[in-house]
Write a structure and sequence with these properties.
Number of domains: 2
Oligomer: single chain
CATH architecture of the largest domain: 2-Layer Sandwich
Length: 253
């Protein structure tokens, strides 16, 4: 090897070595910067996701509370306001005698009908209960489920009679009587877009001189299932308030 070849090799090798070192240094710095940015981005992403989840849960909780404000009084508010509104469990039926009342709600898939009912026993005769129950204008005096009630024509309750009810959290509705069997029963109906509601009020005399009151609400139509699932808890609550209020109003002291 000549002297010129050795000199050229000495020059090339250090230059290649320094270039490789610079390249590795730049790659290392770039990888570090990339990892740092990725770490910051992941942290920001997790923080946003956490805040979003918290906000979502807060809104869901507030919405559930607004839709069913009485849910805090029940052990299972999801069951009360969710897809299943059937609350007439076997346990509640067994306890009906102790509470002097029971309630239930269910959806009939075959008929597309939501059905809710409340039952109570009252220490009074049928005439006394009928007098109170058929006096629609005075319902707000004994049930918190109705804020205002107004008969739209004078006289006793007969087929064709109408009344306008205002209830908390619901739109005002006009009900028309379609059946009367005084002093034991009357049935009325109310129509809304996609839903027809039918309310049945029965007074059944018992052998001991008391009566059993059976309140039933059926909702049918294309939107009955949707309305029943959204407002099933409210409907159930209002029927229970009506039954309990009627018992307190009519029962002997």
């Amino acid at each position: 090897m000549s002297g010129d070849d050795r000199a050229h090799r000495l020059v090339v090798v250090p230059a290649a070595h320094r270039f490789a070192g610079a390249r590795d240094h730049v790659a290392h710095r770039f990888a570090g910067a990339r990892d740092h940015v990725a770490h910051r981005f992941a942290g920001a992403r997790d923080h946003v996701a956490h805040r979003f989840a918290g906000a979502r849960d807060h809104v869901a909780h507030r919405f559930a509370g607004a839709r069913c404000p009485w849910a805090r009084d029940h052990a299972d508010p999801v069951k009360l306001c969710g897809a299943s509104v059937a609350e007439g469990t076997e346990a509640s039926r067994r306890g009906a005698g102790r509470r002097r009342g029971s309630s239930s709600g269910r959806f009939d898939d075959r008929g597309g009908t939501m059905r809710f009912e409340a039952v109570t026993e009252i220490d009074a005769d049928a005439e006394r209960v009928w007098t109170v129950q058929s006096d629609i204008d005075r319902w707000p005096e004994w049930t918190a489920s109705v804020s205002r009630a107004q008969r739209l024509e004078p006289g006793p309750l007969t087929v064709g009679s109408t009344a306008r009810l205002e209830q908390p959290r619901l739109r005002p509705a006009v009900w028309r009587v379609v059946a009367v069997e005084a002093p034991y029963r009357f049935v009325w109906v109310s129509n809304a877009p996609g839903v027809r509601s039918r309310g049945d009020h029965r007074i059944v005399p018992l052998p001991d001189g008391r009566v059993r009151v059976e309140l039933t609400l059926e909702q049918s139509g294309p939107l009955a299932a949707v309305v029943g699932r959204l407002y099933g808890g409210l409907t159930h609550r209002y029927l229970r308030l009506e039954a309990d209020g009627l018992r307190r109003r009519c029962g002997r002291p």
